[in-house]
Amino acid sequence: MLSVFRKHPAALLISLALHALIIGLMVVNLSSVDKLQDIKVGPVAKTVQAEVVDQQQLDAKEKQKQLEEKRKREAEKKKKDLEAKKLADKKKKEAEKKRKDEDKKKAELKRKKEAEQKRKQEAERKAKEKRKAEEQRKADVAKAAEEKRKAEEARLAEEKRKAEEKRKAEEARIAEEKRKAEEARKQEEERKRKQAEERRLAEEEQKRKEAELKAKLLAEENQRRLNSLQEAYKLAIFQKVKRNWIRPAGSEKIPECWVRVLQGPGGIILDVTFGTCNGSTTTYRASIENAVYKAEPLPKPGDPSLFERELNFNFRPE
Amino acid sequence: MNNDSLLTLVMNASIPVQLVMLILLVASVFSWALMYVKRGYIRQSQVEAKTFEGRFWSGINLSDLFAQLSVRQERRFGLEAIFENGFREFARARKADLNNSEVVRSAHRAMKVSMSREIELLENNLPFLATVGSVSPYVGLFGTVWGIMESFRALAGVQQATLAMVAPGISEALIATAMGLLAAIPAVVAYNKFTSEIDAMIVRYENFLEEFTGILQRQAQSPN
Fold it and tell me: What are phi and psi of A116, to 5 degrees?
């Protein structure tokens, strides 16, 4: 089976494209359906929680004891809180002092840094000015040299150009002379060629006329032959049908009948029908049909091109 | 879970189910490609048979027709092939000076062989379509059953079972069945169509063979 696809790779490609299209459509379609569903879905039902009620009662005595303990615990807690607060205040003050010292130090450092930066900037600016002056000087020198070189070059180029122009003019003159000579020669040749051509054309015309005449004669001859062959073919068929015809008993008047015969290759009969057939009886027509079928296979034409699939002939016994 | 597209459903499926889906997709692609090729060939054969029958019954000389066919370069198929083989055998047997019934019988035999070759070409690869059509629903069903099995197994481990826990798994699994049916339906339709068309072609070939044998018989009897 794979050999089939090796022979028709396009089929596999078409099939793949079709599947990709269908899957793509489905994906798009389904996602839009999903969006609709999103809206419809309500909140999920909550599970119910069961509560257990404790029904035990406490003793009155026990209850009082518990209360006592509770009060004690609370007093202790208050004392502890107070102590903790004092400690926290002390710590806070210390931290404040430390922070102030640090700020002072930082300010000092900053001032120093700024002074350093200013000094640096000054130095940089001076260096820059110096560099600029140096560059200007160098550029001046280079410019002068360049101008000199250019002037020299221009002079040389001018000289060269003049020499070139002279040479070109000389060349152009020579070329012109050559061209003129060439043209004259060509014209001469053209004239000669034309004359030859005319002669040749005249000869060809003559020949063609002769050939045409010959072909015409031949075609006429051929047509005459075919015509006679066709007549002979038709006659042969008619004669064969007539030979095979048996006169039906008890028929006095024999009318003429137009018979149409369809024949296949090799002269076999495909169909027989009747055209105008005035005053004929069924037996008479049947006798003609029998005669046609008996004449099978029908005679062949002298030339295969004359074969006729449909034959029409007038059947006259006399 | 609700905003899943078809693609994520496929991606989430378990490996065996994905494998089943892949097999079905490949089968579908191949069967469509085969349908395309087959349809082209059958159409071509029908057109060929029609034009050749028209030419044959137009009353052309049989040896002329044979000469025209033999000159042509491309491969001959269908009625042309049957006619050519039959007529060649007829001419050869006639040269060998066999008697008339022998000549016709050998031509008939040659045409039979040629016809069975043509039929084989027409029916070539059709069984693949039949297989896809009958087997792919089962393959898809297997994928589905497997997917549902998996989702029920996952369900066994939890205390409170809700429908929301199994539904996505089953939905994933059902895609396999859908794909199986999608692959099978076109294949079955195409298979039935092709077999009926090929049967019609076979009847046509047989009719031509018998008619042509009759003509050869008549020609063998007549002199020349």
Answer: -55, -45
Best A3, A4, A308 residue to mutate vs chain B (most B CBs within 10 Å)? A4
Q: Where are the domains of chain A?
A: 2-98, 244-315
Q: Which of A30, A37, A263 is opposite residue B59, by nearest beta carbon?
A: A263
What is each CA distance from B110 to A172, A235, B205, B213, in whole angstroms? 85, 38, 14, 11
Judged by CB atoms closer than 8 Å, whether chains meet at A26 and B6 is answered as yes
DSSP conformation letters of A13-30 = HHHHHHHHHHHHHHHHHH
Residue A226's identity, in one-letter code, is L
First to last CA, chain A: 71
- Of the partner residues B5, B128, B214, the one whose CB lies closest to the CB of residue A1: B128
Are residues A251 and A314 in contact, defined by beta-carbon separation less than 8 angstroms? no
* Type of residue at A162: K
Could you tell me which residues come within 8 angstroms of residue A52 by beta carbon, excluding any fewer than 6 positions away? none
Which of left, alpha, beta for A268 (phi over 0: left; psi -120 to 50: alpha)?
beta
CB contact under 8 A, A38 and B3: yes
Rounded Cα distance, B18 and B11, in Å:
8
Fold assignment, A244-315: 3.30.1150
- The length of chain A in residues reads 318
> Measured between alpha carbons, how far is A53 from A99 in angstroms, rounded to an integer?
59
What is the SS3 string spanning B111-154?
HHHHHHHHHHHHHCCHHHHHHHHHHHHHHHHHHHHHHHHHHHHH
The DSSP line for A121-144 is HHHHHHHHHHHHHHHHHHHHHHHH
Q: Does B215 touch chain A (CB under 8 A)?
A: yes
For B20-58, what is the HEC assignment? Answer: HHHHHHHHHHHHHHHHHHHHHHHHHHHHHHHHHHHHHCC
Sign of CA dihedral B49, B52, B57, B58: positive
Q: What is the rounded average pLDDT of the residues B48-52?
A: 92
Assess whether pLDDT exceeds 90 at residue A273.
Answer: no
Angle between helices B163-221 and B100-123 (to 10 degrees): 160
Question: What's chain B's Rg over C-alpha atoms?
Answer: 28
The answer for A315, left when phi > 0, alpha when psi is -120 to 50, beta otherwise, is beta
Token pair for residue B26?
């490949």
Q: What is the model's pTM?
A: 0.51
* pLDDT tens-place string over residues B138-167: 999 999 999 888 888 888 877 777 877 778
| Tokens standing for residue A264 | 């296949």
Q: What is the pLDDT of residues A42-88, one digit of tens each?
A: 444 444 444 444 555 657 778 788 888 888 888 888 888 888 888 88
**A4 contact B CB<8A:** yes
